[in-house]
Amino acid sequence: MRIFTDEIINAVCLHLAERRGVRPTDIEVQLAWDEEYGYTAEVWVTGRSQYLIESNMREAIGQYVFTEYNRRVFPSDIELGVDEDTGEFWAQMKE
């Protein structure tokens, strides 16, 4: 199973909305990858910026996959990637 950029962003929004007690629509997310930090997400919640590291993103994706697809996935079973040609991010769940 693989999800792409939009669903990864939804996963992060839903995860942070639950933790912060805000609506998912109050959250903005920008995904990134670089050699030093790996996969990250810059997140704005009610005007305040913060960065999520890869492990936080994997946790959010795992919860999203369970909620939306009724499938348990451990964070260690989630591989993140980006298509260098299109800039599309993806998360692959191990079978």
From TrEMBL:
<protein>
    <submittedName>
        <fullName>YxcD family protein</fullName>
    </submittedName>
</protein>
<dbReference type="Pfam" id="PF10850">
    <property type="entry name" value="DUF2653"/>
</dbReference>
<dbReference type="InterPro" id="IPR020516">
    <property type="entry name" value="Uncharacterised_YxcD"/>
</dbReference>
